Amino acid sequence: MKQMLLLIVILLFLTGCSVLHKPQSAISTYAFGMPHLSLTEQVPNQSQLHRRSLLINEAAAPAWLDSTAIHYRLLYDNPAQSYAYANSRWIAAPATLLTQQIRNRIVTNTPEQVLKDSGTAKADYVLQIELDEFTQLFDTTDSSHVVVSLRVSLIERNSRKLFAQKDFSTIESSPSADAAGAVFALNSASDKLINELVSWLTVKLPPA
Fold first, then answer.
1. What is the structure's pLDDT at 185?
2. Structural contact between residues 172 and 190, judged by C-beta atoms closer than 8 angstroms
């Protein structure tokens, strides 16, 4: 009898260990794709003089976007409630990823001198970015699109006056109703929006 009880205790212990050590679902981590050279003015000649020096501050974002979560909302159910995919995330917060892409695109497609730190050199202008929306929206259970919205402010450094400001927003259909579809569409939408931003900046910045 004692041996039977001992055997039962051992089996229960082993079962408990297997439950405690059950492997968790893998987390998928996503980053933005490589920037596309799709503007008319691309890769300026290295001998070309920079027109202006531009300090690009880190993009600001509301608290709910200040994380690596991939957000979605159900328009057909409760559009006011925001959800996040449990096993998928960005490699960094969307505002950080967008900032890096915008800096890279401006360097690649314009003759401007881009500064990341105000301590390195004095900039002629400051570009402030506010990310407002970066979400997948489900129209139905199997149909969704994404929205990316931000506001850009161009400030003259010496006078601290607002030189120009513009709201940018773009919508892109998701190829699939899941996190992978959201990532693909958000990448594509961001790429288009950044192209629009750079084109606007090229027009707004006066020549030196």
1. 97
2. no
Contact call for residues 146 and 186 (beta carbons, < 8 A): yes
Sequence ranges of the domains in the chain: 47-204
Q: Which residues contact 98 (CB under 8 A, 6 or more apart)?
A: 32, 59, 129, 131, 134, 150, 190, 194
Overall pTM > 0.70? yes
Q: Quick: pLDDT tens for 23-53.
A: 456 888 998 865 454 444 444 444 445 567 8
Q: How many CA atoms lie within 13 A of 57 on its CB side?
A: 16
Contact 114, 100 (CB under 8 A): no
Q: Which two tokens stand for residue 181?
A: 């579809």
Residue 138 predicted with pLDDT over 90:
yes
Q: How far apart are CA 88 and CA 110, in angstroms?
A: 35
Return the closest-CA partner of residue 110 out of 165, 153, 65, 54: 54
pLDDT confidence of residue 157: 87
28-30 and 143-156 as β-strands: parallel, antiparallel, unpaired?
Answer: unpaired
* CATH of region 47-204, choose from 1.20.1530.20, 3.80.30.20, 3.40.50.10610, 3.30.70.60: 3.40.50.10610
